[in-house]
């Protein structure tokens, strides 16, 4: 399988108050945990999708960057995914990971790839706490057409894409910390100890 890794690391971090992908956990930036989990599974290329204001703060080396132009900034995950997928021309699948998930693991990425290998679905999406987790998921390249259609109609919610494609859902038990995503400083205060 030809899989590219796409780490979503743009957005506004308005609830966090500062760019949350650069919050640290055990001396590493949050976004580095997403990069590492993909790298440990030999996924290549690994691309960080970000914007012109944030690019300067990332560590360089071993990853590529896809930069959203000023007019494309803050359009949300569906746009950021479309923008990245359409620029990575040689991948069949895209493993998307948000960059605000410091507890994501190599084993999680491996389990998801194993599912994709045996699936004819358009996307492989975990379910945790009865909720789909589309920012920790695998998407086939064939979704690009539907993504473009939605964006052209100014429909920017990722949930709208999920409704239109064939999903393979992968249940995870409700005590998995890997799905902890950090939105506010209070969220982080609760988990970092
Ligand atoms: N590249 C890119 N990533 C995004 C964009 N919007 C959100 N993300 C990423 O998607 C993940 C989930 O983002 P959210 O927490 O929903 O949105 P946010 O803008 O980061 O934060 P809030 O302003 O607090 O909603 C995070 O990893 C963000 O870095 C975007 O427009 N471009």
Give a short synopsis of this structure.
Transfers a GMP moiety from GTP to Mo-molybdopterin (Mo-MPT) cofactor (Moco or molybdenum cofactor) to form Mo-molybdopterin guanine dinucleotide (Mo-MGD) cofactor. With 193 residues, the protein is an alpha/beta fold.
Walk me through this protein's architecture.
The structure is a single chain. By secondary structure, this protein is an alpha/beta fold. The protein has a single domain (3-191), classed as Spore Coat Polysaccharide Biosynthesis Protein SpsA, Chain A. It is 29% helix and 23% strand. The chain has six helices and ten strands. It has helices spanning 30-39, 77-87, 106-117, 144-152, 158-164, 185-191; strands spanning 3-8, 24-25, 28-29, 46-51, 64-68, 93-98, 123-128, 131-132, 136-140, 167-171. The strands form two sheets. Strands 1, 4, 5, 6, 7, 8, 9 and 10 form an eight-stranded mixed sheet that branches. The longest helix is centred in the middle third of the chain and has 12 residues, at 106-117. The model has no long low-confidence stretch (mean pLDDT 95). The protein binds guanosine-5'-triphosphate. Pfam families: NTP_transf_3. Its main location: cytoplasm. Residues 5-159 form the MobA-like NTP transferase domain.
């Amino acid at each position: 399988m030809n899989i590219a890794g796409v780490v979503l690391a743009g957005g506004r971090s308005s609830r966090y108050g500062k760019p949350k992908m650069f919050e640290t956990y055990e001396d590493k930036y949050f976004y580095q945990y997403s990069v590492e989990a993909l790298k440990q599974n030999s996924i290549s290329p690994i691309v960080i999708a970000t914007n012109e204001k944030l690019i300067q703060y990332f560590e360089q080396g071993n990853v590529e960057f896809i930069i959203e132009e000023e007019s494309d900034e803050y359009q949300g995950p569906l746009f950021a995914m479309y923008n990245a997928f359409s620029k990575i021309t040689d991948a069949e699948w895209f493993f998307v990971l948000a960059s605000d998930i410091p507890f994501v693991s190599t084993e999680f990425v491996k389990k998801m790839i194993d599912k994709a290998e045996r699936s004819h679905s358009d996307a492989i999406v975990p379910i945790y706490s009865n909720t789909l987790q589309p920012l920790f998921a695998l998407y086939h390249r064939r979704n690009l057409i539907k993504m473009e259609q939605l964006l052209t109609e100014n429909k920017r919610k990722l949930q709208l894409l999920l409704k239109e494609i064939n999903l393979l859902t992968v249940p995870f038990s409700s005590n998995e910390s890997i799905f902890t995503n950090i939105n506010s400083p209070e969220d982080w205060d609760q988990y970092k100890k």
